[in-house]
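Checklist before submission:
- one chain only
- standard amino acids only
- sequence pasted in full

Submission:
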Amino acid sequence: MTNDEFTSRAHQLVDWMGKYLRNVEQYPVKSTSKPGEIFSSLPAMPPLEGEDFDDIFRDFKEIIMPGITHWQSPDFFAYFPANSSPPSILAEMLTATLGAQCMIWETSPAAAELEERVMNWLRDSMGLPREFEGVIQDTASTAGLAAMLTAREKISGDKINEEGFSGQPVYRVYASTQTHSSIEKDVKIAGFGRRNLVKINVDEKDFSLDPVKLEKAVKEDIEKGYVPCCVIATVGTTGTVAIDPLKEIGEICSKYNIWLHVDAALAGTALLLPEYSWMIEGKEYIDSFVFNPHKWMFTNFDCSAYFVRDAGRLIRTFEILPEYLKTRTRGEVNDYRDWGIPLGRRFRALKLWFVIRSYGLEGLREKIRDHISYASWLAGQVNKHPEFELLAPVSLNTVCFRFRPKGKNEDELNVINEKLNHLLNDTGSIYLTHTKINGKYSLRMVTSQTNVKLDNVKKAWSLITTMKDDL
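Returned file contents:
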């Protein structure tokens, strides 16, 4: 493809992209493809000769697009927001064009210095401690692993990196029963072993980690000869968006010399709102903190903002210095390949910079407040309806509720709500997912897609209350 051909095709694709974003509501939100349908539509062998771009793009539209679930539809209420925005998309186009490998300052000084500046913007705008330093990771899962590995090296005096776990005591990691599943994966990868993840029961009303039960578990482990290493507190659990009490948890961590990592992947963006600063009361105890701009800050996946109180400790955990990476600027600048697991790094800071500058802090805050108000409106409708009930408190952007017709036992209600969920999704008009809360099947509706409006939420509620009659 010549440069002239590239330019012509780029204009063609951008025109299609603009039409897609304009008309995304016209697609079925959830793909209606059957398992194997896309796979069987693709040739078994790759072409020997290059194919015409028109043929490739036609197959994209005819084969690939029917298998896409449209996360950018304002009628997408499932899982969690995985938001994009026009400024972020444009920045991604530039990132792909530059093709920069941003592993150290020397390989692209602008990438390293922009990342440092943008992370400082976020830290200060969200009210995080000034001594925190930030780095962009790919996901909160990776950030959680980085936190555990750093905590592991701190508690072992850097011995495990050098000698392995042989001869070391049993280290324990603590998290609530509502904590994201990635923490369990991280515990395995970090070498602690799944059995050494201690899951702490939660408050019966708001599903937050119970500090009393946490301290009891820590004391019992110390009596057994185990070494408490790390606590994972969550600001916005995936299931119910519960907010763990950081101050009480932090006091326990300080008392017993335990690393405190805060996973705010879903809800952390709300810290841009001054009225939500209560979520990190006790921030003086936090050792590491992560939130995902690629969830609720309108930035394309992947972009996870990870902050640490002691960047030197983080770097010592991960740094490796082969000859080909030695530079004259080492020690004067941030070489971010030493701040996490991968050597290779994308220029993620560019899209975050575009988003923050395009919306401004007040523009971001306005959208976040709107999303929270939509969830509040929906919760009010559920509360007023005689056949629906809330199953968890609503503090941010997620509403957990169920259809509860009279005369049905819990097992029957679970079956009915699962059927309702599938009926709704099969319409193609909206997409909801579910969770289970104390064994109860809950419809779970997240009102924070980038372009969602109250009209979309009202349409979804109307469909829900109408389709219940088809059960």
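Reviewer check: Residues 349-384 form the longest helix (36 residues).
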